[in-house]
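Take a sample.
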Amino acid sequence: MLFDYAVVVLVLAVVATAGITTLGKSARSPDGTVSSLASPASPTSGQPGQTPAGTPSTSSTNSHTPSALHTPVSGHTPSPSTLPRQSPTASTQPTVTPSAPPPPASGVPNIMVIVEENNSYSAIIGNSQLPYINSLAQQYVSLTNWWGVSHPSEPNYLAMVSGSIWDNPADLTPQDMTYPGPTLADQLAAKGIAWKAYMEDMPRACDLTDQYSPGDYDVNHNPFMYFNTIRGNASQCNRDVPFTQFATDLGNGTAPPFMYVVPNLNNDMHNGTYATADNWVKSQLALVFASNWYKQGGTVVLTWDEGESGGDQIATIVIAERLSGHGAVATKGNHYGLLRSLEEIYGLAYLANAASAANGDIKSLL
C-alpha cells in the first residue's frame, strides 16, 4: 500500500511538470516573440520603472532640443507633434494689455513743448512739404480745434507761460516792456520741479541783451525773458539756456521734467522753408525718442504760436508712446488751455485765463 501511494505521488509530480512547461510555451508565439500577455515583472502604466513600449519618454517630450529622429530636413518645417512645446501658441496665449511706462526717476511727468511759427492749421496738416510732421499727426494725437489767442507772436508766447497776453505787445523787446509774472516756470520752481527753456542761437544762458540776434535768435520767441520774476532771479534765469544744451541733457540723463524748446527763425517756419523745419523737427525728435527722458513716459507737444491772422486755428500734435494710434481729438482749446493742462498735470494753481475750462483741457493726453 505504501508502494501504491508513492507511485501516485510520482505520477502527480510528472503531470504538474508537464502542465507548467505547456503554460510557458503558450506565452510565446511560434517565432519566439512575447505575446500580449504581460509578465508579472513588467511595470504597468503609472508605475515606476521602465517606460512601457510605445509610450514617449518624459525626457523626449520635455527636451528643448529635438532628438536625431526629429531633426527637420532642410527647408521643411517639422510638424507640431515632433517639436517640443516651449511656449503656448498665439491662439492659446491670453491677450496682454501693455503696461504703463515706468515713471521718471523723480516721479514727476516729463513734458516738452516745442513751438513753431506763423502757420495756420490748414497750412500744416496735409502739407506735402511737411511729410514728417504730418506722419506725427497721423500716428499720435492731432488737436483739430486748437487756436492762438492774439497777433503777432509775442503775446501768444506770453499767454503760453503766464495765462495772459498782458498789454498785447506788438513784438517788443524786454528793453521796451517787462511784466511782473508769475509764470509757469515760477510755479514749477516753487514746487521743486526742474525746468529749462532751450533757445536756438541764443548765445548764453540768461541772455539779457534782448536782441534779435545773434544768428537767427528772436527774443520775441523767448517769453521767460519778459518776466521780472525770472530776469531778477539768477537761479531761474540760468535755466533759460542756449539750444546747444538740448542734445547734451537728453543724452546724459540730465534733461528736466519740463522742457520748453524754441527753434531759430530759420527752423521754425518764420523765415525758413517747410522742408527745413520738417527736417529740424525730425532730427530733434530722433534725439528725444532715443532718450530715457522719453522712454520713461515722456510727452512732446508740438504746437504753433499763431496762424496768419490773430486768433487763427493752429496745428498742435501730442506725441507719446502710449498715444500711438490714438487718433485726432476735436476738443476746442488754445494756449491758455495748454497752460491749464500743464498746471493740472504738475499739481499747480491756475494762472489767469488758464482757470477757465472754456479754454480747453488736454490733461488726459499728458
Notes: The longest helix spans residues 2-26.
